[in-house]
User: What shape does this take?
Amino acid sequence: MDNGQLEARAVAGEGFVHTVFVAPRSAADPARPVFVFLEGDGRPWSRGGTRPAANPDPRREVAYELAEVQSPDALLLGRPCYYGRARDPGCEPELWTFGRYSEPVVASMVAALRRTIGDRPGRPLVLVGYSGGGALALLIADRTPEVDAVITLAANLDLQEWTRYHQYRPLAGSLDPLATRGRSPGCEIHIGAEFDAVVPPALLRSAVDRRPGALLWIEPDADHACCWRSRWVDIMARVTAQLEAAHCLESGR
Assistant: This one.
């Protein structure tokens, strides 16, 4: 992968080492938020879905692309066993199949996030999760008081309904994103796509209805993969205006 503007670092989590891609810091305004991007599920299964994939790394890295656009003041937090780490100690297929949002995954990502942002004290912190990364964003934010806002994109938040809709096997080893506490009103935004066949708007709307104070936006003429990168500057302008209006970024933590 061409790392572009982002520098790859190895960061210890809790029982795992994570690959974190970090953009250059902004020298202009130390109060600018740090945006932490979380990638989708990648390739949990081999082609045909009959066996776990030997390497879960994503073929299309949507969150990585958005982190590049967001640079500076952006980073991408990798999951355990992703980005060439599938053979790391403790990495078993359960961690990218049924347990892709499990306790070991979430706990290690929280620890790695804290270590990564430790040298950026006082900066507002916004999690941005794409697809399955949106489920992780809610789970990580629930354990990370430093998080000021959560943005999800085309995210499968209701795991039970999502697996039932696609006739997938239940993610029995995973935690429930909808069981987490909500953010302050207006500080949790879920953005879906009008023609998303992976996470249809109706499924997303039903999930967001269970999140008091959360907002739902639907991008017209878009689907699960298209066209987040080309629209990201405009989406972020709307997101930033909403977060500022709701006073989400004033914690000064």
